[in-house]
Every structure is written in C-alpha cells, then in structure tokens.
Amino acid sequence: MFKRILVANRGEIALRIIRACRDMGIEAIAVYSRADRDAAYLKLAHDAFCIGPESPQLSYLHAPAIISAAELADVQAIHPGYGFLSENPTFAQMCRDCRIEFIGPSVESMRLLGNKVEARRLARTVKVPILPGSLEPVADEDEAVAVAERIGFPVMIKAAAGGGGRGMRPAHNEATLRSCFRNARAEAEAAFKDGSLYIEKLIERPRHVEVQILGDKKGNLVHLWERDCSIQRRHQKLVEESPSPHISPRTRRKICAAALRLARAARYYSAGTFEFLVDQDENFYFMEVNTRIQVEHPVTELVTGIDLVRWQLRIAAGETLTLAQDEIPQRGAAIECRINAESPDEDFRPCPGRIDEFIPPGGPGVRLDTHVYAGYVVSPHYDSLLAKLLVHRSTRAEAITAMRRALEEFRIGPIQTTIPLQLSIIEHADFKKGNVDTGFIEREINTGTRKT
Amino acid sequence: MDLKTIKSLVQLMVENDLSRLELREGDTHILLRRGHPPVMLPTATTAAGPAAGGALPSAPSPTAAASETSAQAAAPAKEHQIRSPMVGTFRAAPDPESPPLVKVGDEVRPDTVVCLIEAMKVLNEIKAETTGRITKVFVKNAEAVEFDQPLFAVELI
C-alpha cells in the first residue's frame, strides 16, 4: 500500500480522499491555491503545499506545479479527484513518466473512452446500444443534414471531445441544424481544441441512468448498480438517487451488464461511471464514460456498503478486487442533494461570501460530505458546491421523508443556497412517484408550479 | 502603471471578450490573460530559463483576477518581498560549487537573477523584478519552496 499520496484537488473531494487516507494509514499531501490557504481541511492532511494563485489554470489545473509538489513531498501516487486534471490523459502520462502512480484508469483507456466517437464505436462492437446517429464525426453541415434525415429529427449536435453537457446543441429541423452547425464547431474548437462534431438522435424526456464500475489491474470487474441523475439543470446534476425509480429489474440487469461489457472491452480499471439515457419505453442508449470518481459516488457507497475511494487506492496499489458480483447488494434507497452556493430565484447566480451560520443536519440515515463550516469563505474562483447531503433508508418513500427533514434542519447563511429548490423538488408529486426526466427542472421550476 | 489602469484594462478585455492583452508603455510591460487556456506543459528540458508554462512570465503580469493585483500592491512602500512564483527546490546558485547569486547587501535590478528554482528537472531563473538592496534571505539552498513563499526581502531604492 502507498505510504504517501498527493491529493490533486480541493474542497469536499479533497477532504474525502484525505479521510480515506487517514482510515488507511496513508500520509495525504494536500495542495492548495492562495484562495484556499485558510481551508480547515488542509490541517487534516499530513502536509500541504501552496501551488499557485487563485486562478484554477495556474493552480489546480497547473500540472507542473502539482507534479513538482508531488516530487518535493516524495509521494508514490496522486489522486486527481474529479474535474480539474482527473480526466486529462496528458497529466496521467506525466505522472507515469515521473514514476508516480495516477489513481485512475490507464492512459490508454482514458484516451479511448474520453473520445465520444471512439467510445460509441467500441460500444457498438460489444453490442451496447448507442443512440442512432453518425458513428464518425461529420465533415460538414450537408453531411449533418443527411444523417439527421436518416435518423429523423429532432437531433443533437455534439462535440466529440465534449462532456459534462458542454458542446451540445439541439436541432429540430434542417434550418436550425444548418444555422447551429457553424457555431457549434467554433465553440468546440475554442472549448476543447477539437472541432469534431457528430449527430445523435435527441430523446424526448429521457432519464439519465449511470452505472458504477470498479475494476482491478488484473482484469477483474464488477458493477455496483446504477444511479439515477435525471434531476439536472443545464446538464448540472442537482439530485441523484439509487436505485433508479421506475426502471424494471430486467432493464436494470441489462444496463449494468452492458456497462460491464464496455468496461471489459476498454480494459478498464479503477472506478468509472458509464452513462446511459433511458427513453420512456425503457430502451437505453450508451452516452459517455466518466473515467474518474464522481461527485455522487456516496449514493452508491450507501446502498452497497462499499467504500469506493478506498478501493481506488487499493486498486492503484496493485491489490486484487475481492468483491464478487453476486455479493454486491443494492440495499434500501439513497438520495443525494448537491447543496450549491447559488440563488435559484436569480437564475442560479453564484453566491460567494463568508458563511456565518452553518448548522448541519444529522440523525439516522444522514450522511454529509462537506468541507464547509461557520467562518468558511466561499470564493468566486471555483465551483459552487458547498456540501453533498445524503440519506439512506429502507424504502424510497422513507428516504424522501428523511431528506425533507434533513434539508429543513440544514441552516446555511447568510449566502443563498439551493436548499429551498431541492425541498421543492423532493416534495413535487412527480418526483415522489419517480416520474422524472432530464427536463423536469426546466419544465416545473420555470413555470413556477409547485405541486405537492 | 497603477491599479486603476489595470482594472480598466481588465474591464476592456471582459467587454470585448479578449483572451490576451499586452501593453508596453516606457519601462512598463503588462500581459493580461483571460479565459481557460489548455494546460501548458514543458515541451523540452532546458538547463536554464523559465520552463514553458511552468513559471509565470517574468514581467509583472496579473491575471484577470483583480484580487491578485491588489495583493501585489499591498506590500509596504519601502520594503518588498520577492516571493516564489512556483513550487520547487530553491537553488542559491546554478551549481553546488558556485557562490550564491545574491547575498544580503547586494543591489538588484529588475533583470537580476536572484536565484533558481528547480522543478521537474528544469532550473528556472527567478528575477528580482524590482530595484533595491537585498536585506534578508529567507530560505536555504536545497530547501523546498511553495508558491508565494517569501524568498528575499528587498529595500526599494
């Protein structure tokens, strides 16, 4: 097992990794930007290095600074968390070149699965369903129109190098497709340095269902069931849960088996999440792979009882996965709310500032992953995630009740947070019935209806 | 160049959606970068000179975050600290046999190389960026230094 690792991230996920290290007797080396120098979680690390100024590209995204700190601290491995450099194959290769273990999958599978066109092609070879569309990037707008006419409108224009909801534009007819195409290309070029676009069928009212995978370096792979992340706003998840309500056990088995097939074909190891869209008839289609630990990983940890970050460390250190597929439970129901420093009533304007009041919820079935406390200053430079509030109960109905209790107890001030929004979501009749899709927030919140 | 001017340049960039703005005025040279450039990684190992993308440009070059410029302007008028622009190992001289590049009492100019910082097998020259006299050396040879760590105190002249 590693003696010392570097945590190349910040906030709640840095704390999560530091906690796993403390549980395992591994020395955790933290890095921080000037903006994070007073963060309390840094004191829980064995040592901490300031690596740059406030701006992410000069600090948490600045690979030379991170590798330099890793060398100074003489660590054996780096855990990249999520976001930042976690899905950057160049960074993973740099770690490898400097003989530092990158805690994640191989560079090759990261490159393969990180390219959406390549991933879709691989999916097809192992009979994992993909959305009808162009397997290859389209050369120009005429080809895009030809594909769209073949598969039928509406379609989605997507950047091959995109992800996380970025670089996507819907088109409901030829005129829109033509006018969007050029802009989409320029946007992709600017954001991802790769202007390749492909065309995919647009599913109406889809559910977002993703499968958690864990694999070791010897080829052993298991799935840890699915999470439903349909409650999104502008492709940012707000509420996640497991099991996915309203998919049949048969569909569940098929989706998890499909994810496993694709992971095996990509020779995947470490933790990864395979995302699917499920339509109203329970047909499912592979979308993309997140080759890293995810924000919502605790949802899976609660229903399975398995510590994912701990397994990432063990796998990276060369240990064998000792989990047998038929022994991985999906017990009860877990729900997570991402509490963000945003004002839902003001178009989710970010609300940085000092937190003076912080009274966390607790009690049976409540888990809170947060780096925040009274006195913490939320800076404007990074994402607005304050805390992940989770509940785990025997049934979904009880989980919803517990989440309502927890959200009502949770006091954060004076800044605005998404707590009131998440309360309306879980009290919504459709949510209670499990009738949600990725358009739920835009539809229900914008119209201002509050059904209970 | 004062903070007010820098702030208006930043505003100019934001309003016109510029990603890069460079201005030379007499002895002043300012470079402002905005947006999300890709991760810049060293493309070659060189014995000296700033690593490509590894060190901040040697001219004072605040990014779009105005708070950085105010931090740099906050040092007291007469005394100034030369702080590390990167993470690495402090080297007082280019090699162990040579004497330190600067010592207490030495005068420095903006282009004076006061030390080197080694990171990822590359030696980066650190310039004084100011005119003055070294009054204190805060770090020892071969010591690990982090970003923003004070290296030298300089009395401005």
Compact description:
Chain A has 452 residues and is of the alpha+beta class.
Number of strands of chain A: 22
The order of strands across the largest sheet of chain B is 3-10-8-5
Sheet of most strands of chain A: 8 strands, antiparallel
What spatial form of chain A do the alpha-carbon principal axes imply?
Answer: globular
Mean pLDDT of chain B: 78
Q: On the 0-100 scale, what is the average pLDDT of chain A? A: 95
Count of distinct strands of chain B: 10
Q: Please tell me what the overall shape of chain B is.
A: globular
Q: Structural class per helix/strand content of chain A?
A: alpha+beta
Largest interface: A-B, 30 and 27 residues
Counting structural domains of chain B, the number is 1
**How helix-rich are the residues of chain A, as a percent range?**
25-40%
Structure explained in plain terms:
Chain A is of the alpha+beta class. Chain A folds into three domains: 4-103, Rossmann fold; 132-201, ATP-grasp fold, A domain (Dna Ligase, domain 1, 2-Layer Sandwich); 207-446, D-amino Acid Aminotransferase, Chain A, domain 1 (2-Layer Sandwich), CATH 3.30.470. Chain A is 33% helix and 27% strand. Chain A has 14 helices and 22 strands. Chain A has helices at 11-24, 63-73, 89-97, 107-114, 116-125, 141-151, 174-192, 249-265, 297-304, 308-316, 396-409, 419-427, 429-433, 440-446, and strands at 4-7, 27-33, 47-52, 77-79, 101-102, 155-163, 166-171, 197-201, 207-215, 221-233, 236-242, 270-278, 284-290, 333-340, 342-343, 349-350, 353-354, 357-359, 366-370, 377-378, 385-393, 411-413. In chain A, the strands form six sheets. In chain A, strands 13-12-9-10-11-14-21-19 form an eight-stranded antiparallel beta sheet, with helices on both faces. Chain A has a five-stranded parallel beta sheet with strand order 3-2-1-4-5. In chain A, β15 and β16 (349-350) form a beta hairpin. With 157 residues, chain B is an alpha+beta fold. Chain B has a single domain (3-36, 45-156), classed as Beta Barrel (OB fold (Dihydrolipoamide Acetyltransferase, E2P)), CATH 2.40.50.100. Chain B has two helices and ten strands; from the N terminus they run αββαββββββββ. Chain B has helices at residues 3-15, 66-73; strands at 20-25, 28-33, 79-83, 88-91, 107-108, 113-119, 122-127, 132-137, 144-145, 150-156. In chain B, strands 3-10-8-5 form a four-stranded antiparallel beta sheet, with no helix packed on it. In chain B, strands 7-6-4-9 form a four-stranded antiparallel beta sheet, with no helix packed on it. A two-stranded antiparallel ribbon of chain B has the order 1-2. In chain B, β6 (113-119) and β7 form a beta hairpin. Residues 40-73 of chain B have low confidence and may be disordered. Classes of the chains: A alpha+beta (452), B alpha+beta (157). The interface between A and B is medium-sized, with 30 and 27 residues.
